């Protein structure tokens, strides 16, 4: 066998070895034909700068504080009958309480998350969760809350149960209302006058408690 044949056989063996070791996905190939850095940036570029700005201006912390307060002071969850997005009397009463709290803070946006239990397909449950979130937003809008401040765009379907079970579970058939941030272009927020929001809330609490003091907790 000549040296030329030996060299060709060695090269072929090396190529086969590399092919066997190559990943099964196409990422190793596509990265050579993509824009530099495309595999590094997954869509979150700039989030660190945005987070720093929100923290320095106080917006991030105030949003977090309001979200925690909302979930503490009112029931943020309503439940549904199996396969239904209809609001019963209990759910409507909870939502009226939510609306009363939300009206105190015209600067704040809210998001409604829809959930289901595990019965049924993931596709149908995701659709049902969305309908439940839409029903809550619709009801809150009848209580004097602008639709511009309410979002029903997220449905977790059956993926985030409170009680892990494959069967019917009312506690999993729910929506959750949460503070999501500030309304854009609101003059109070643009001026950074967060003290005005706090002061207005303080005056409202004194009026509710009577006698000029803060409202007593129940």
From TrEMBL:
Residues 67-183 form the OmpA-like domain. InterPro entries: Bact_OuterMem_StrucFunc (IPR050330), OMP_bac (IPR006664), OmpA-like (IPR006665), OmpA-like_sf (IPR036737). It comes from the Bacteria. Keywords: Cell outer membrane, Membrane, Signal. It is found in: Cell outer membrane. The keyword Transmembrane does not apply. The keyword Ligase does not apply. This is Outer membrane protein OmpA-like peptidoglycan-associated protein. PANTHER family: LIPOPROTEIN YIAD-RELATED, STATOR ELEMENT OF FLAGELLAR MOTOR COMPLEX. It comes from Sulfitobacter undariae. Its main location: membrane. Residues 1-22 form the signal peptide. GO terms for cellular component: cell outer membrane.
